[in-house]
From TrEMBL:
<dbReference type="InterPro" id="IPR012336">
    <property type="entry name" value="Thioredoxin-like_fold"/>
</dbReference>
<keyword id="KW-0813">Transport</keyword>
<dbReference type="Pfam" id="PF13192">
    <property type="entry name" value="Thioredoxin_3"/>
</dbReference>
<comment type="similarity">
    <text>Belongs to the glutaredoxin family.</text>
</comment>
<keyword id="KW-0249">Electron transport</keyword>
<dbReference type="InterPro" id="IPR036249">
    <property type="entry name" value="Thioredoxin-like_sf"/>
</dbReference>
<protein>
    <submittedName>
        <fullName>Thioredoxin family protein</fullName>
    </submittedName>
</protein>
<feature type="domain" description="Thioredoxin-like fold">
    <location>
        <begin position="4"/>
        <end position="79"/>
    </location>
</feature>
């Protein structure tokens, strides 16, 4: 099963759109999904591990797949 992790922050203006997109796709396709706040220990660990410099960043199966809000079609293609 595909595992999607969205690294986001409360102060990010683009993150709500990314959250909405991934939540909708999760409901439609049923993959594993997790949201991680950048300013938490887990978020800081992911930022260091994946060299995250911009958010939202989407990690899919342990690789950075998207930086920013992905196009719905491109995101759908990755999780199906």
């Amino acid at each position: 099963m595909v595992k999607v992790t969205l690294v986001h922050s409360e102060w990010c203006h683009f993150c709500p759109a990314a959250k909405s997109l991934w939540r909708d796709l999760k409901d439609k396709y049923g993959f594993e999904y997790n949201e991680v706040e950048l300013d938490t220990p887990e978020g800081k660990e992911l930022a260091q591990k994946f060299h995250i410099r911009s958010i939202p960043t989407t990690i899919i199966d342990d690789e950075v797949a998207f930086v920013g809000v992905p196009d719905r079609e491109q995101a759908s293609n990755v999780v199906t």
